[in-house]
Automatic annotation (TrEMBL), chain A:
It comes from the Bacteria. Keywords: Cell membrane, Membrane, Transmembrane, Transmembrane helix. It is found in: Cell membrane. The keyword S-adenosyl-L-methionine does not apply. InterPro entries: NrfD-like. Its main location: membrane. This is NrfD/PsrC family molybdoenzyme membrane anchor subunit. It is a multi-pass membrane protein. The gene is nrfD. Belongs to the NrfD family. The chain crosses the membrane at residues 53-78, 90-118, 130-152, 172-196, 240-265, 277-297, 318-339, 359-378, 385-412, 432-452. The keyword DNA-binding does not apply.
TrEMBL record, chain B:
PANTHER family: LIPOPROTEIN-RELATED (PTHR40394), QUINOL:CYTOCHROME C OXIDOREDUCTASE MEMBRANE PROTEIN (PTHR40394:SF2). The chain crosses the membrane at residues 59-79, 99-122. Pfam families: ActD. Keywords: Membrane, Transmembrane, Transmembrane helix. This is DUF3341 domain-containing protein. It comes from the Bacteria.
Amino acid sequence: MATKPISEPLRHPVNDPMIDPRTGEFAVIAPGHNFASVTQKISNVVLTSHTPLGWFFGLIAAAGVLTMMIVAITWLVLRGVGIWGVTIPGAWGFAIVNFVWWIGIGHAGTLISAILLLFKQSWRNSINRFAEAMTIFAVCCAGLFPVLHIGRPWLGYWLFPYPNTMNIWPQFRSPLCWDVFAVSTYATISVVFWYIGMVPDFGTLRDKATHPFPKWFYGLLSLGWRGSTRHWMRYETASLLLAGLSTPLVLSVHTVISFDFAVAALPGWHTTIFPPYFVAGAIYSGFAMVLTLAIPIRKFYHMEDLVTLRHLDNMAKVMLGTGLIVAYGYGTEVFFAWYSASHWEWFMMWNRMFGPMGWGYWMLILTNIAIPLFTLWWRKLRVNVTYLFILSLIINTGMWFERFVIVVTSLYRDYLPSSWGTYRATKWDYMLYVGTMGFFTFLFLLFTRFAPMIPMNEIKMMLPQAKLAGGLDAEETVEETA
Amino acid sequence: MPVEEGVYGLLAEFNTPGAMVHATEQARAAGYRRMECYTPYPVEEAATALDVHHTRVPLLTLMGGLMGLTTAFLMQTWMSAISYPINVAGRPLFSWPAFMIPAYEWTILFAGLSAAFGMLALNGLPQPYHPLFNAPNFRTGATDNKFFLCLEAADPRFELADTRAFLEQFHAVSVVEVDL
């Protein structure tokens, strides 16, 4: 990035400490922090004996919504999937829509923690921890849907290849079986990556805790971490390797999920654009969810100096980029439907846009393409916290509509008009869907209270004090501090 | 070997990473080998000074990945083609392209678990007790904002008074004995 000369009129107030007056760029983290203040700021959220009242209100609200999910699941187990709106031909309703939506949301967490780590994007350091937590909780929500959708969820373990008296094995040629492998691997690796990343911070919490119980609890979780350089080197290598492994993993998971659709010979599903288009959509909605979470959290816990406007700006730029890929995907779908000269394909597209469920398609275009992609070009809007928060909710809605449009409008009218049907979600569908949001929020609130939501050791690496000035001029550094 | 009974080593505390790295380099130049730096975040230069950049974590990860690949591929081949062959629409029993996706996932799964648990195993973690935790200033600073260099008593060059004098010349905040 070229540096602007100082004489040029500044677009920003000179005295704003968050902005470099020469470049006009935002600082990654606000100036004025040192090692101890970073530790204190982040560990205080966890170790305080005074839990903020707002947290309790949030937890109670989330628990209320979570109860709805429990009721919906209980009734489902008692009565079977007939309580849902799924029928023939609309056999994949909300369950699959929500599964793909939730798992897509998880993807930004892995993207932030893995791909941006490999690309040495240090701005990720403030947001990766809670983005990873978001991934894990989103995968928890996602995993519920296919398991419940199989009708007899208590037999869900049949999907795994384990030795059994029935002498029968999973069908390894089926994308639904690939899903089991992809999603379970994704969940496992995400949990491991998340936990390993927190071990040094648990060590800090253990050392900072004054009460015996947190001391014991974080002592247990920290595994005896003591910050030895040999340990750090292996730790960094392992983190880098996990990042390198998660990167193809995150791309493969949504690719495999798109195969669930693409392998079917159904108009609207049988498309080669699906793998990249699904992955881009996942990242798009995932970043939207990170913003949905980051904006209230930084406000509530006064983390504006660690999760700065630079982070929000960068995330908005990523959304702009992935949103453009998604828009290209929509365009390609329409183009292929026309260019393939396949009657069925073109009918599906026409029906998707102007059929009885056409409103879904236009909602999708409005919320996913029109509103975000025409506004995110303006930096003023990208750093407008309120606007970004509202936009992140809009994009999340838009990505849900995308999955809905793909699943429903392809299924309910396929080749034979005699087999056409319709799809209408029931109240149980809505209860389960909304309930999972409560589940997600509930887990996330517990996480913000009991785990370091911003990685302390990674923030410390970014402080100017961490740079060894002019090689290793130890004498000077000592005198400065003395 | 003039090792004092019951002493793990001498622990020097520094306020800046630069001072600690400088002391480490000097200690190494003076012939000390059994030593370790403790920092709240990874300090690359300390690893250079200690010459501990080489780790076996990548090798373990590679082995894990290859194991996952082989396991998954052989498992699917055996299950689909040998143990319970089902003819689905005339597709071949050994349909290896379809087997590649679970095999790919297990490659990542095994490699990732090997990286994580291999790192912990090589580090000797979990290890709830370590003599350094006996030093009160270590407990309050090592994971917060202080930088420590520990010269261990097991080093042949270690001699309590001399080593203490050696460490004190680097303007350390403190130099304390660590009980075993």
